[in-house]
User: Which sequence fits this backbone?
């Protein structure tokens, strides 16, 4: 195991049982495979690879008009099993190559009664293309994608107002590098001011924001950032535009958010805010189950 890795049971079990009819676990427990894999990843403090064939976030994800349309007509054309069998779910991802059918399907997850010719569909598609030309890629950030749709449908209400944010860092002659974040937010007319120290400015900002928000929204207490990625989008040296991707979990669900800016802290802030507001919106709209 320490040389070549341990056997990945989240792949071996469904391969044997679903493909070769070799019993490994009770059939009525197979749906627990994905939530169990995510829980183990959380305990081990690692990010569950999105490409895992049964339990990964990308295993049953689709983008592009033809692909989405094909899955809706006959899921077996693009999927090797029904995702619910292993506790996963199908995801339709927005991108600039998405057609109206793909956009409509995502909207209908939120508003099931949305008509195909409704102006909201064209508005979401146009907003998507505008943001993607600015550097956003929503196929890797489904939570930000759903927030975008809710905003365009008029279902989104900000959960807080940022009044002040200050970030400082220092590198003492001895000791480790540290960063501090001071934040002031407003929720329902009530101010909360707090500060936090972190292992770098993004970590400090994350801790300060959560600390302030938890005063009003205690359900955010179990949110944990599990992955943070930065990509430079152009070659403008220190003025380059960057894209940040954040993966978060509450121990039950996993979601990804995105931010884009020439300022890495601003891009990180966008992704952090989306992460917390997505969790709150899930509860508000009854998506937790």
Assistant:
């Amino acid at each position: 195991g320490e040389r070549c890795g341990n056997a990945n049971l989240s792949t071996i079990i469904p391969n044997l049982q679903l493909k070769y009819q070799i019993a490994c676990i009770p059939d009525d427990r197979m749906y627990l495979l994905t939530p169990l894999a995510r829980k183990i990843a959380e305990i081990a403090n690692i990010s569950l690879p999105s490409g895992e064939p049964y339990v990964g976030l990308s295993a049953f994800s689709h983008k592009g008009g033809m692909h989405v349309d094909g899955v809706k007509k006959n899921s077996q054309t693009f999927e090797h099993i029904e995702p619910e069998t292993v506790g996963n779910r199908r995801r339709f991802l927005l991108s600039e190559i998405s057609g109206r059918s793909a956009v409509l399907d995502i909207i209908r997850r939120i508003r099931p009664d949305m008509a195909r010719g409704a102006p909201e569909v064209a508005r979401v598609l146009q907003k998507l293309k505008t943001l993607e030309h600015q550097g956003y890629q929503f196929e890797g950030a489904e939570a930000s994608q759903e927030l975008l749709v809710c905003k365009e449908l008029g279902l989104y209400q900000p959960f807080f107002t940022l009044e002040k944010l200050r970030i400082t860092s220092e590198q003492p002659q001895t000791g480790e590098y540290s960063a501090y974040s001071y934040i002031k937010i407003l929720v329902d007319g009530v101010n909360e001011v707090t500060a936090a120290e972190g292992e770098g400015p993004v970590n400090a900002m994350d801790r300060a924001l959560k600390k302030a928000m938890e005063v009003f929204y205690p359900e955010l207490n179990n949110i944990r950032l599990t992955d943070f990625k930065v990509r430079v989008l152009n070659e403008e040296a220190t003025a380059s535009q960057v894209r940040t991707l954040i993966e978060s979990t509450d121990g039950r669900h996993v979601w990804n958010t995105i931010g884009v800016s020439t300022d890495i802290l601003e891009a990180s802030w966008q992704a952090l805010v989306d992460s917390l507001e997505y969790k709150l919106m899930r509860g508000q709209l009854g998506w937790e189950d």
About this structure: The chain is about 35% helix and 20% strand. The chain has a mean pLDDT of 88. Residues 264-284 form the longest helix (21 residues).
